[in-house]
Amino acid sequence: MARLGSIDFQEVASDTIVLGTNKGGWIYSSQRPAYEVRLPAFFIMNEFLTHADVATALDAPIPSSKANLPMDDLTANDVVGLCQTIMESSEFKSFTEAKGGSWEVRLPTESEWYLAQREGVMALSAGTNERLADGPASNNRGAMMDGRPRPNEFIGPASSQSAVMAIHPRNATVFAKGTAPSQRPLPGVYARLVLTPIRSAPAKRVPSSTDAWANIRSELLWTTLLGIVPSFAIPIARGMGAYAIDGWFNLFFGGLCAGFITGAIWRPKRPTLRYDEVQSLVDESDSVSQ
């Protein structure tokens, strides 16, 4: 356990965690590929930042009516400034001297959040959203594999968004990643901080490209076996062989539709991308089937 000012941090041991899914259906494409993240030991707040926490860190008056309430009027930029103030404190300097190495205070990344949740060191509240250090993403391509924050690489409206973890309105054990504006506060969007080592080694990222030709071959095979072949086999088995010839276009198109529908919910599982399979951040040549 570590304490900076009025903020208590719970320790999370170093571990490897798998994020994403290896299910092959296209409805899971935003959650692919499944990939390993190797995380060093770090510390995370059990609760959200409260008004008292922020006021103490900034040496400001503590609002008595809100002192122990979680604070939802902080933007992501406000949190960055707060973290910088905390890292200038004597408590932070004492902590880094005792631990050694380079440390930082910031919002948690997705992988840090999931590992802390799995280890049960933080409290979750139904119906809340909490900010993450990551930028938004449409899938796991480009995700960091060492737990460092994923940069925002979008252009346009999404460039002003950041990732959040949304907790189900009634069930705190159900959650999903979403986005929220980073430059303005929103009701019900809170923050908790991590005290974590700075990753100085070259980063490892999930390759941004996929083996498109392998995916096309697989889709052609399964669409044929699960869609086109049954579409022709059924009328032939019912003694309607003439229709299989005269109405081939309708059967072929119907088979394509059936294959597309089956592809939504099932395809063979994709491989999980292992940490040791990726060379470095600058190597863009790796191609792994998503």
Characteristic key phrases:
290 residues, four-stranded mixed β-sheet, single chain, alpha+beta, five-stranded antiparallel β-sheet, 17% strand, disordered C terminus
Mean pLDDT: 93
Shape: elongated
The level of helicity is: 25-40%
- How much of the sequence lies in strands comes to 15-25%
Biggest sheet, in brief?
5 strands, antiparallel
Q: Strand pairing plus helix content: what structural class?
A: alpha+beta
Q: In whole angstroms, how far apart are the ends? A: 39 Å
The helix/strand series, from N terminus to C terminus, equals EEEEEHHHEHEEEEEHHH
The count of strands amounts to: 11
pLDDT < 50 stretches: 283-290
The neighbouring-strand order within the major sheet is 1-2-5-11-6
Count the helices. How many?
Answer: 7
Rg estimate, integer Å: 24 Å
What secondary-structure arrangement, pairings included, does this model have?
Elements: E1 2-4, E2 7-12, E3 15-19, E4 35-39, E5 42-45, H1 51-57, H2 76-87, H3 90-99, E6 103-106, H4 110-119, E7 129-131, E8 161-167, E9 175-181, E10 189-190, E11 194-197, H5 212-237, H6 241-246, H7 248-265
Parallel strand pairs: 7-10
Antiparallel strand pairs: 1-2, 2-5, 3-4, 5-11, 6-11, 7-8, 8-9
